[in-house]
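Problem: given the chain below (296 residues), write out its structure.
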Amino acid sequence: MWDYSEKVKEHFFQPRNAGVLEGANGVGDVGSISCGDALRLMLKVEPETDIILDAHFQTFGCGSAIASSSALTEMIKGKTLDEALKVSNQDIADYLDGLPPEKMHCSVMGREALQAAVANYRGEVWSDDHEEGALVCKCFAIDAVLIEDTIRANNLSSVQDVTNYTKAGGGCSSCHEGIEEILVKVMAERGDSFKPGTPSAETAAPAAMTNLQRIKKIEAVLESVRPQLLRDGGNIELLDVDGKTIYVSMTGACAGCQMEALTLQGIQQKLMEELKEFIKIVPTKAGALSRASCNP
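Solution.
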């Protein structure tokens, strides 16, 4: 269980400025549901002064993502665009009295959404996509440039730090060597050294979980997304776990919804992040598995 500050809990349970902003003239979109987190930041800017009159957000993600987005909108209202752009991801975390290290990537996403929204208002092209071949973490679609920038901005010094701030390396772990190479390069720029491949307590492979522990983690992830589904009149039920295949039932408004596939992709990515392994989530109608098991 993450150790959340009271302010994070406050902004999660009572988020400020959530929902569509009518008359927004600057919109920034970052992340994707398939990667587990997505954020749309909407700004209403006064053209004569470049002052942000209002800011709203829409977020698909964990409690830290919602709280970070809520905090960001409160922090930037009343600022000029240039002043707002000086807000760092660490400023967002500090405003919330801290974020768990494993959730710092949520504040990074807020900073990027702000950059994207300001660029949109100014008629500029903003993109977090970089040159072909720069992709480092395929699980979460994180490129080398983002990793380098985040290491520099936050003075990171370990693979675990990079995972906490960007999610890179939090899935299959096959990109750890690539992350280490970037750490070597960036740390050398500031006169520090890093020995790639050196095992440590924070990069060691986690101990194997029992089946009961896996099921409890799966249930915890489903419980974390359930409030969002309930708000839309839907729900999700865990039916069975067969090795790396997880069977669920989408109920209520979620059953047959046009967004069902995208929602399941997001939940699957969250499960991969939590379990530290590749899994497949399969939607199945309640009762189908028990009926199938009765067939000869």
